[in-house]
Amino acid sequence: MKKSLIAFTLAAPILASASNLVQNGSFEVGTVGEPGSDWTLSEGIHLFSPVQIQYFPHPGAAFGEDVPADDSASLSPDPVGEHGVYFVDDTAASILMSTQFVAPETGLYHFGFSAYAPANGYTNPGDSVFSLTLGAFAIGGAVSSLGSTTWSAQSGLADLVAGQNYNLVFSFTGGGLGSAKDMVVDRFYVAAVPEPGSAALMLAGLTAAMGLARRRRPAGRGAAIQAAG
Ligand SMILES: [Ca+2]
Ligand SMILES: [Ca+2]
C-alpha cells in the first residue's frame, strides 16, 4: 500500500506539470499596463481605462459591485489569487491588453482566460465584444453570451513553433452607442497539451509500480484491505 502511494505521489506533479507560458497571467504582480506587470495596454480613444480590481470583499471592485474570485473550470496552471482586470469602457474603440512569450517546443497548446460579466454593467443596453488572439488562432464572443455574474473558462487550441516569439492579445470593444456591457478577466494562460505518447508511457510506469507494490505486499494483508474496501 505504501509503495503505491509513493508511485502516485511521484506521478502527480508530472501530470500537472504543464506550466503557464504567460507571465503574471493571474495579475497578482504589479499593476496591469505598468512596467513590471508583464502586460501592455494599448487603449486608443476611450472614456475608461481597464482597472485592476481586488476580489470580494472590496468596496471599489466594479463600480462598487463586489466581484467573487474566479471559480471557473480553467485549464490555467496558476492560482486565482486576489486580482482580476475590469473592462468597463463604452466607446467603440478597441482596448488591447497584450503580453509576449517564446514557445519552448513545437506542438499543440491550450490557451485561454476566465471571463465574468458584473450585474450592473450587464443591464446596459449596448453589447461589448472580446477576443483573445494567439498568432493565427483566436477565440472570443459577445459579453452578453457570458450571462450575468458567472465566471466562465474561455479556451482554444493553437499550434506553436519552438523558439518563436508570440503575442497574446486580449481585445475589448465597447458597444459604441451609449452604455455597454462590462467584463472582468483573469487567469490568462498558454500551456502545452500533454502528448498522448508521454501520458501513456507515464500511466504504464505507474501501473507497473503499483503492480510491483501489490506483488510485494503480504497476501494476508492484501486480503484484509480488499475485504475492508
Ligand atoms: Ca488573479
Ligand atoms: Ca461599459
For the termini, the CA-CA separation is: 13 Å
Bound molecules: calcium ion
Strand content: 25-35%
Q: Work out the helicity level.
A: 10-25%
For this entry, what is the oligomeric state of its chains?
single chain
Number of domains: 2
The low-confidence runs, each spanning 5 or more residues with pLDDT under 50, are: 1-16, 219-229
Largest sheet: 5 strands, antiparallel
CATH topology of the largest domain: Jelly Rolls
General form: globular
What is the tally of helical segments?
4
Beta strand count: 10
SSE order, one letter for each helix or strand: HEEEEEHEEEEEHH
Calculate the mean pLDDT score and round it: 85
In words, what does this structure look like?
- The chain has 229 residues and is an alpha+beta fold.
- The protein folds into 2 domains: 53 residues, no CATH class; 175 residues, Galactose-binding domain-like (Jelly Rolls, Sandwich).
- It has 4 helices and 10 strands, in the order αβββββαβββββαα.
- A 5-stranded antiparallel sheet has the order 1-4-9-6-7, with no helix packed on it. The protein has a 5-stranded antiparallel sheet with strand order 2-3-10-5-8, with no helix packed on it.
- A hairpin with a 2-residue loop joins strand 6 and strand 7.
- Helix 1 packs antiparallel against helix 3.
- The longest helix has 21 residues.
- The protein starts with a helix and ends with a helix.
- The N terminus and C terminus are likely disordered.
- It binds calcium ion (CA) (2 copies).
- One calcium ion (CA) binds next to strand 3.
